[in-house]
Amino acid sequence: MTAPNQTAGGVEANANANANANANANANANAAAPAVSERPLTHFRTLPLSIEVNGKIVGPTEVPVGLMMIDYLHEYLHLTGSRLGCGQGICHACVVIVDKPDGTSEEVRTCITGANFFHGKSIRTIEGHAKRNEAGEVVETSPIQQKFLEHFSFQCGYCTPGFVNAATVLIERLKRQPIARGEVESTITEALNAHICRCTGYVRYYEAVKEVVLTTPGLVREAA
Ligand code: FES
Ligand code: FES
């Protein structure tokens, strides 16, 4: 058995030995550890985007190529009313209205359409339907929004922005091209058919749109 080292010199020697051992251990550990490498930065190619949204010019802003419009609306403009549902172009919850130079309007799905597609275009989102006062407060809903409320057309409301936009595009089309009374039901079905409501609120949506179509002057041709 080795006698403990009682001298001051012996204690110092032991301390040095321990320090050397620790240093060697650390050196070995460092040698075994993988080298720390910086993650490469991800570089996006960008393109300028200028767009009119709900009557206001936005941009030009540099946005990454491939950025979907729904993400541009949410993350750049903080317009979160457009809903991301399926993200695959199926449910139509995410549509916005594009106002075309010829005065017509159409729905475009923003989950599968890049933001750059909208460069130079004029769009309306769900935030653009109601009238607001100078403080930004809603003072009057659009006719479609109002009838959806009166008919309790929605439950969770996730699909509602898409339905509002689809029905609005339909009403605007009927103002330009009135239909016969006998075509009302089939025309509404055709216009709303692509929109999925997971709460099965279809009937009340249809009833509300039908009421707007039948009570708005000029949308339905009287029989000859
Ligand atoms: S979220 Fe765009 S179609 Fe479903
Ligand atoms: S009201 Fe819930 S998805 Fe349509």
Describe the 3D structure.
With 224 residues, the chain is α/β, with parallel strands linked by helices. 36% of the residues lie in helices and 17% in strands. The protein has a five-stranded mixed β-sheet with strand order 2-1-5-3-4, with helices on one face. Strands 6-7 form a two-stranded antiparallel sheet. It has a two-stranded parallel sheet with strand order 8-9. α3 (143-150) crosses α6, α4 runs parallel beside α6 (202-215) and α5 crosses α6 (202-215). The longest helix is centred in the first third of the chain and has 25 residues, at 8-32. Mean pLDDT is 87; it is low at 1-17 and 21-31. It binds FE2/S2 (inorganic) cluster (2 copies). One FE2/S2 (inorganic) cluster binds next to loops.
Brief summary:
With 224 residues, the chain is of the alpha/beta class. 36% of the residues lie in helices and 17% in strands.
